[in-house]
Write a structure and sequence with these properties.
Largest sheet: 9 strands, mixed
Shape: globular
Number of helices: 17
Number of strands: 20
Bound molecules: adenosine-5'-diphosphate
Low-confidence stretches: 1-13
Distance between the termini: 19 Å
Mean pLDDT: 95
CATH topology of the largest domain: Rossmann fold
Length: 497
């Protein structure tokens, strides 16, 4: 088997060649945490494995962003992969990582990644089945031998199915192993059964022991059943998803695959999220520079059109979230009048379901001087909120890992979180453990408990010395990707051996 000519992929028993397959990767295309992980983890793995590459679809936003893309393959297909249309592949190099882009205008040259505010694109199953097949076909064309194909979420979950059941007669794919990472079990990629033919899935796989899930095709089941190992993005969530409450109907299957199921807690990419080097914020700052953080607070208030009072004594509370049931937006709506009555100003950045947007809009109309709602996906404002807010809220009903609680700690913006999944793993309640506490937690998904936790935070905020000590401690925490990268390498080794 040929090795890559460009930077030649070496393959010895001790070295690993890894391909990341993801439907979104920052900075190219992002709708949530998956993009951050697919960008940061390869960087953290770069020095621990022989080679790492990333592959994703070539969306319109990437084409428009002016990245220098060079064509590396044209007219690719594979005879064993059924109805796979021909496609081209481009590449770009950034931060030492080469990323490949699968081009197919009909499927990916669109305004959004997965759908518009009116709903998901109706052909998402076909789009991502195509992407999964295209990845496998591309590898053969280029004769690139990867030891590990690391797939993420439902969009790439058919990769292990096609590798195992369509390419089983092709020796090229024999030694590849697949790791499947679940970033959010609730989004499984469920589609109508009449798509079986279009997806090239034989009818014999449409049963409860294979890809059927209550009369629908379930992409995520393919990842869980046919990958060589499965992991999720925090230890807490790996435990939770074995229960009926968090298992989204797949807890039985996950329990059956328990031996192959692992939890590796995500990290924070401090090359992107660190107030000392953040290019998006007004004043960069480090531990102890309270004045600079205050300047960022003033800048944030100005940016979102809220008045900044003399002395900036009022606490500013930040929220950045997808507007979805998962994120507990309704709990925020329940308590927002109380937060304002307690003297806080609230800045909310997000996008998502219209019903949550409407509820939040009513809040900001009721409190035009104290609640700012920005309905956008806006990376630079997200950085400004992390830097300028005093307190950050994450009242999630479930949270596979969550990244903003880690970013918030780094920016000295104290998190108040619901104790679930990765939020519970990362945050230690200050009132439960004054020595190690780095935030505030509440347990039941109810407005009353949430408000109680925020009140505890606001009380501490009034005592400047206590608060500054808490901020300094939070900023010292280290949730860098190093630890996770080491765990991934040992998991790769384990499934390869
Ligand atoms: P999710 O479940 O949405 O993936 P995570 O906490 O894992 O949640 O990651 C969310 C990521 O997306 C964070 O980097 C967060 O700052 C970012 N993000 C979410 N919504 C927005 C938005 N409206 N504008 C900018 N960034 C956003």
């Amino acid at each position: 088997m040929l090795r890559l000519k460009d930077n030649s992929l070496s393959s010895s028993k001790k070295s690993l060649n890894v391909l990341f397959v993801s439907s979104e990767v920052a900075p190219y295309a992002k709708t949530g945490g998956l993009a951050d992980v697919a960008s940061a983890l390869p960087k953290a793995l770069m020095h621990r494995v022989a080679n790492i590459r990333v592959i994703m679809p070539l969306y319109r936003c990437i084409r428009k962003s002016g990245y220098s893309l060079y064509k590396i393959a044209a007219g690719v297909t594979h005879p064993l992969l059924g109805n796979l249309p021909h496609f081209d592949v481009y590449a770009n190099h950034q931060h030492g990582i080469e990323t490949y882009f699968i081009e197919h205008r009909k499927y990916f040259d669109r305004d959004e990644l997965y759908g518009t505010s009116r709903g998901d694109y109706p052909d998402n199953a076909v789009r991502f089945s195509f992407f999964s097949k295209a990845v496998l076909a591309f590898l053969k064309t280029r004769d690139i031998s990867f030891d590990i194909i690391h797939c993420h979420d439902w969009q790439t979950a058919l990769v292990p199915f096609y590798r195992r059941f369509k390419l089983d007669n092709d020796p090229f794919y024999q030694n590849m192993r697949v790791l499947y990472t679940v970033h959010n079990l609730a989004y499984q990629g469920q589609f109508h059964r009449w798509l079986l033919g279009r997806l090239d899935i034989p009818k014999k796989f449409f049963n409860m022991h294979a890809l059927e899930f209550y009369r629908k095709i379930n992409f995520m089941k393919s990842g869980i059943l046919y990958a060589d190992a499965v992991n999720t993005v925090s230890k807490g969530y790996a435990r939770e998803i074995l229960t009926e409450e968090y298992g989204c109907g797949l807890h039985g299957l996950l329990k059956a695959r328990k031996e192959y199921l692992f939890g590796i807690t995500n990290g924070a990419d401090y090359s992107e999220w660190d107030p000392m080097i953040d290019p998006y914020i007004k004043e960069q700052y480090s531990i102890g520079s309270h004045k600079a953080k205050e300047d960022d607070k003033r800048d944030l208030l100005e940016s979102v059109g809220l008045p900044a009072e003399e002395g900036l004594a009022r606490p500013v509370i930040g929220v950045i979230a997808r507007f979805a049931w998962q994120k507990g937006i309704d709990l925020l709506v329940d308590i927002i009048d109380d937060l304002v009555a307690l003297g806080a100003q609230v800045v909310i950045l997000g996008k998502g379901e219209a019903k949550y947007e409407n509820l939040l809009r009513q809040c900001s109309r009721r409190h035009p001087r104290n609640v700012a709602l920005i309905v956008q996906f806006n990376n630079s404002l997200a950085h400004k909120i992390e830097a300028g807010a005093d307190i950050f809220l994450m009242p999630s009903r479930y949270e596979p890992c969550g990244l903003n609680q880690m970013y918030s700690l780094k920016y000295g913006t104290i998190p108040v979180v619901r104790a679930t999944g990765g939020l519970d793993d990362v945050i230690i309640d200050y009132d439960e453990d004054a020595e190690q506490g780095n935030g505030f937690k509440f347990y039941s998904a109810e407005g009353r408990d949430f408000l109680h936790a925020v009140k505890r935070a606001l009380n501490r905020y009034q005592d400047k010395l206590v608060w500054q000590a808490l901020v300094s401690r939070a900023m010292q925490e280290d949730f860098s990707w190093d630890h996770a990268a080491r765990e991934y390498v040992s998991l790769y080794d384990r499934i390869r051996s």
